[in-house]
Amino acid sequence: MRDQALFDKIDLHLIRVLHTVLTERSVSKAALRLGMYQPAVSASLKRLRELAGDPLLVRSGSGMVPTDAGLRMIEPSASILRAAETLFSAARGFEPQTAANTFRVAAADYLDPLFLPQLVAQIKAQAPLCHIEIHPLSAASDYHTQLAQGEVDVVIGNWLKPPEELHLGKLFADEIVCLVGKDHPAAKRGWSREDWLEAEHIAPTPTHPGARGVIDEYLESQGLHRNITARCPHFGLIPRMVASSLLVLTTGRQFCERFTERLPVQVLPCPVEFPQLVYYQLWHERTHASAAGRWLRERVKQVAAALQ
């Protein structure tokens, strides 16, 4: 009887508050994500603490962390929310014009700079009531967990060896080239492999200590090392840095060519022969059969094809 009485006090909204508070680790951030006032979230958290007989979220330094009991509740609460989301949507299918889903896309900023704007435009044109959230792939991103827990629906990026435990779809392959300022010596006289390795390179800031991007992973496999003298976490700003310096950016042709008409930069062949950059979209088994998930992945695929 006690278990039934406890169950009767739990509703789906309370589960949603529970999962959001535990993953955001902040009542104020959870309120923003839920579209609620902070006192209402605090009141729901109080109810949850009474039901659990545990504080669930406690202060640690300047932030908050889940208790052991709270950590154990993250995956079950995510599972309940996933089941609720698909309970009726799977039965009635996905109708873009009337659907009100929230699509969450995690993407690296070294994609073609037109990719995400065109993806958002296409989704809003075809599914006007749907919401879209773009999440960065950053040092703090654990996209395996985010996909498993429903925090993102699709991850887009490139990998030398994409993870085998996730579903994947190839979007496009791109040639690796170099972007330099028009006053760079290599723009006038060309360069050898040794010239390129010794030049001053700019590269993205590593996602975590010791991490290497696909360029440096491949160079290391060939026993080579380039001279990186500048790093930047914002890939979209790097072409402007290249335009006003002697720095070299080595990345996909499709990204580089978006800047040749807007900035005093030039695309050069790379004297090191790299394998092509292959861009993928990744998704979890939880959305593999979802009509809404399939619709989103098809939009991603179409936008990628249109930009080729």
Molecular structure report:
With 308 residues, the chain is α/β, with parallel strands linked by helices. It is built from 13 helices and twelve strands. The protein has helices at residues 2-8, 12-24, 27-34, 38-52, 68-92, 115-126, 143-148, 185-189, 193-198, 214-221, 238-243, 253-257, 291-306; strands at 57-60, 63-66, 102-107, 131-136, 154-158, 167-174, 176-181, 201-204, 228-232, 249-252, 265-269, 277-283. The strands form four sheets. It has a five-stranded mixed beta sheet, covered by helices on one side. It has a three-stranded antiparallel beta sheet with strand order 10-7-11. A two-stranded antiparallel sheet has the order 1-2. Strand 1 (57-60) and strand 2 (63-66) form a beta hairpin. Helix 2 packs across helix 4 (38-52) and helix 2 (12-24) packs across helix 5 (68-92). The chain starts with a helix and ends with a helix. The mean pLDDT is 89.
Mean pLDDT: 89
Strand order of the largest sheet: 4-3-5-12-6
Question: Which ranges are low-confidence, i.e. pLDDT below 50, for 5 or more consecutive residues?
Answer: none
What fraction, in percent, of the residue positions are helical? 40-55%
Shape: elongated
